[in-house]
Structure formats: structure tokens, C-alpha cells
What does this fold into?
Amino acid sequence: MSIQYVDHHQIDPTKWDSAILRSPQPLVYGLFEYLNAVCESQWDALIYNDYEAVFPLPFKKKFGIKYIVQPVFCQQLGAFGSTVNVSTHHFLSAIPKRFLRVRLQLNPYFDQTNEVESIQTKPAGIIASSGKLTTKTNMTIQLSQPLDYNKDCKKNLHRLAELPIEYKINAISIRDAIDTYRKAWGKQNPEIGDEHYQLFANACTEKLSFTVTAHHQKEGTLLGAAIFLITPENANRSLHYVCAGPTEMGKSIGVMHGIIDFVLNRYQGGNMLFDFEGSSIVSVASFYKKFGASEEPFFCFNRGF
It folds into this structure.
């Protein structure tokens, strides 16, 4: 087995993205272009053999010392590529000890059997590679299956269908969608600053993202907006619901139900994972469950924090 530490400038972008897209579930977060933007190119990697599997290491510097930390607007990283000969545990063990502090959120798809079973049998967390591995909860829908909305969701959608609302793709810019989100929920996320939103906007290229908006059909008034990240055409794809929020008028009519329904129906039936990105907030998780979303554990690795 050969896991090598590779500096950012030595990474082959084409081979890297090929490994990401070979993964059991490719995620936009791991793609070279997206990582470069949200990390400002401050990431190195662990690479198994000739890009058979890869593991990004986003870092920051303080007083000249590097530490590994999860980037904002990048919910899950971890191992990507072929799972045949290497595991997440092998990669965690290969993180150099010079990184005294490591905090990474790991996708659950690379080691779906062994890692999940280990976590589920030890709910308090386990010590892995000199660090602590704990679980967090995500909410997802497999769009290859029929949509399964609950009664309350159907009621809200029926009410919205009676209103003069029009849904549009890419009718506003990424930055305008971010502004809509910040006006709705920005105060609830004070840890996310202007620089984070700017990096995210840079990451949302035309190839990897699109906006969906709801408008009053007659007046053209904006009612809500959402940004979706999407992996390029591939055998398996992921669709991430990010940075979404209503205007005051949109909130009063529950317009986000309509935006989510519009996108789910647009992609339903394909071999795609719809990812709500959480949530640990009970009320938000309850909202996602209305659409038939299932809880899916993913993992957080901490060392030195």
C-alpha cells in the first residue's frame, strides 16, 4: 500500500477529478476547482497509488503553523475514489503528525460497511488514528426512488399551486442568491463572514452550480432563492441544496416548499443523491423530512481540538 503526501502544486487536476467522479457517491466538495476556490488553493492531499483514491487536506496557517480544518460551504470531504484496496482509516492514519490539530468532516460513502458499523456500535465516539471520530446527521433523498412527501408538505404545495408563482433557473446571479440567503438567515450564522461568502461565490461556477428562484408571476417580485451545487454528468451524481432563503413575502407563503419541489421533480428518476446538507437543528430537519428525506450519518474526525 502506498499513500503519499502531495503538495497542492504537484496535484494533477485531471487525475484528481477522475478519482472524485469514480467514487461510490461523487460530491462537488471534492472536485479540484471547487476546493481551490473555497480553500484559496490552501490544500494538500494524500494520494493512494496513481490516484486510485485521494484524500484532500485543507489547511490554514497561524503563526507559521499549519492546521487542518473543514472549509466553510464544504460539508463533507474525506476519501474519494476506489474503495477496493484502501479505507478512510488508512488515510486518517497517514495524516502527518506535524498537523497537531485536525478537524475534518468525512463523507460516509467510501467505507459504507466497516466505518458505519463501527460508529453505530459505539455511539459515544471511537478513538481512530489518535483522534476522535464522532457522527453528525445529514438528510438526503435518493432520486432514483419515487418522491414521498408527507401530508403537510402536499398541503403546502397545493396552496402554493393556487398562487401566481413562477419558478426560474439562473434568473439571478449567485451573488444575488447569496444576498437573499443572508437577509433571511445570515444573522443566525454569524461565524460565516464576507470573505467566506466571496470564496463560495467564486466556487459556484456555471459548470458546478445553478440558482432557482420563485417570483410573483404578475409583479415579478422575488419570493425566494436557492443555490444548488451539482456534479458533472456521471454514472452517479450529487445535487446539494445550499444557501437558500425566502424574502419576507416568500416566507409568509412557505415558498421554499415550492423551490425544493420544483428541483426534486426536475431531477426525479435519475441516479442522483439530493443532499439537504443537514441539519442538526430540529426544526430544519423536520422541514426536510416533509419531503421524504432520510437521516444519513457522516463522520467528524478531531485531533488536537
